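Fold these two proteins, one after the other.
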Amino acid sequence: MKRNQLYWTLQFGGWFTWALNEALLYTNQYGWKWAWLFSSLANITLAIFLTHQYRRISKHFHWQDLSLFRMLQWNTFALLFMALCLVGLNIPLDYTFLQESYDVSLSPFIVVQILFNFMKPLAIWQLIYFFFQYSNKKMEMEREQDRLERTIQDTEGKVLRAQMNPHFVFNALNSVRALITEDPQKAKKGINQLSKLLRSSLLTERQKTITLSEELDTVADYLALEKIRYEDRLTWKIDINPACAKAQIPPMMLQTLVENAIKHGISHAVKGGLITISAQIIDKHIQISVINPGQMKSESTQSIGVGVENSRSRLNLLFGETAQLSIRPLDKNHVEAMMILPYLETK
């Protein structure tokens, strides 16, 4: 049910129930009269009119946003005014319909008693109305906060990707530059490989995640580019569980880990070495490992580069604390980069 329909349903239903209760009390005390029907309809009509005007005024002047003291002031004034209007209607009705049953003496005590009698349902109406208003306002604030957080995350993600792409291009150009004087043919081949890599990067730039198989294609192109530079010093092995192929990961993230493995592992080893890339599913999480030759006393003593730091930030933005990225010594001669994130598959 729409909010407007719900409001009017509760308005008519609530005040009808109140008027019916009052009519039953009068009937029990003075006997049935058809005049009770007219009196009830008059009270329902006036009560709905008054509370609806109260709603319009409170929304127009934003009473909900006032300080507590000011809000109580205006609501108390509105409560008294609405109750006095109902008292002004019902005293003449009582004189008209009950004049044969009892003699009404309009003493101050009687008027105050009637006033408080009408203030009770009106006060309950105000409390229910402000409870719903407060709940709706809180939900709106939560939705707005969620939208703001998503906007911030999207912006931060774009900034991080914007930082990674120039970083990646710079390293790739360095690889090609080293070949220009040594072997122009290999340099030409490297430029072709770099062009292919840049095309893949542009295609995935606007995507938050891609499949692992798509990322592996980019990694294969990157390794082929670096193979031109390192020749036999660089070999690699890919051991991916077929069930991981459709898993979603951030684009260029695995490539960053491989790039880091070459920069801190292969390039420092005289004979080069083997880079092992593996992936498996454990407890509804995908674990992606990149192992390279090298030594690492502690992560704090070795720079892991802008790319890896950005990768950690991107994982936190996309998956929160459920995703992890760590780099640790596997043994005396190998270092492992491990990425763990929730297993999400393409539909």
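Now the second one:
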Amino acid sequence: MTERIWIRDPIAILAEGAERGVVVEGGRIVEGVGRGAEPVHPVQKIFDASRHVVTPGLVNTHHHFFQTMTRAHPAAINKSLWPWIASIYPYWTKYVNAENFRLAARLSMTELLMSGCTCASDHHYLFPRGLEDAMDIEAEEAARIGLRMTLTRGALDLSGAEDSQALAPGGAIQDDDVILADCERIIGRYHDLSDGAMTRVALAPNAPFDVTKRLMRETAALAEKHDCRLHTHLVETKQEADFARDKHGMTAVDYLEDCGWLSNRTWLAHGIYFDDAEIAKLGRHGVGVCHCPTSNMVLASGMCRTKELEAAGVAVGLGVDGGASNDNSNLMEAVRHALMIGRLKYDAASVTHLDALRWGMAGSARCLGRDDIGAIAVGRQADMAFWSLDELRFSGAGDPIAALVLCGAHAADRVMVKGEWRVEDGAPVGVDVARLRHEHHQASRAFLEAL
């Protein structure tokens, strides 16, 4: 028999009817313990949560792990998206390899976990020669630290030499048949549709401006065949929205529809420059949008229309985005930034701390097509973040859950994934953080020495 563990008497818990905590068994939440109550069935262990605010684990729906090798890179800082990516692409294509990619993935996942994240999706689209097994590396590293993953197999098949609008150099692209064969391989090996699965697979051509229509259509067909998700960047900048109209003679959303992508399998990164008709259409078809507030501010890309998207029925999730356009992998920080930029766009009453938390939890889970995570409720997976309010930043805070966002929580004291402790006392279990930092930093030197 598995042990029943009572997470007892938290300061506060982001759940209904669980004021005295929850009972965990077999990796799931099996009972909520209400005010003044005791667990209905005997428990074998008690975890005293009286120092903690307990929330669902955060869910990261868009990232680029490999980019941690070029954080604050001198060639790319203080630029908007297209000049930024044009300046940094040659470094990625030439210097990202299997060894430093493994370190980048390990570092990114560790950062995410320490920020309260329990499930992540990494949109990996860079496959230079020697990095063909990138998805396998990610799967291995996620299993090693106990993080849930959607292995998001990206792709580039159009280079700047072939199309003036494309940004990828020739060394970054792959042949369509190679891409599709690898998609089939990864799906067959890692795509687990069972409740509580630790790995699933999504297919993710990078963006309509640097992949062909054939690849978009073929990946849509593969996703339908294997019941997996679809992901791509879309209208992160006004230039991209204009590109769709100029090149394809239609809006970006109509182009998605033309490619067979307009369905509830799809979630999109950024989605800043949709017009009202596009938003309504996305909502009708159940498409999700990953809001990346930190990256959008760093690159001055714009503000996602989160309120209009949600009102239309679009699932809104959160992502930290790339390690070189955000420069960190802290999802709790992204929650706070989503609140702040949302209030700047709308007003102080229209975007609350609960909205921002919902986007990073239940909304993100919806984007990934998961109804087993993203909330603390009976039957859901026991994925939770435990936040201490012992720091000076929280002194005087009246509402513990609001304080996590308003006072700037950035590191979880404990994190549980599938009922197992993966962070204890602020430290990731089984990870030598000092060694990881040293090895990753040493590997990153190659990207600077090339200047």
